[in-house]
Design brief:
This protein is mainly alpha-helical. The protein has one domain. It has five helices and no strands. The chain is elongated and about 50 Å long. The two termini are about 15 Å apart. The model has no long low-confidence stretch (mean pLDDT about 85).
Amino acid sequence: GLWVHHMFSTGLDLLPISFFSAASFTIAIPSGISIFAWVTTIYGGRVRFSPAFMFALGFIVTFVIGGVSGVMVAMVPFDWQVHDSYFVVAHFH
């Protein structure tokens, strides 16, 4: 499912592109559930600002930024604009 954004710029018809776009959007559902679980675990726990907690918090923030940019790349018109650019590279890294 993660590679399908490459199919947007291949010249396919509307139906396959719509399928690949929907497949790209569905990745956001389990990712959003994971983020919700992590944040509620932090909210329900006793927070100590140790280095391990700060790394975990930094991971969550980075994961959210990557997820938001992933939803942006899942939109076909936007992906046509940024395909083979550093925006896609930054999203994956």
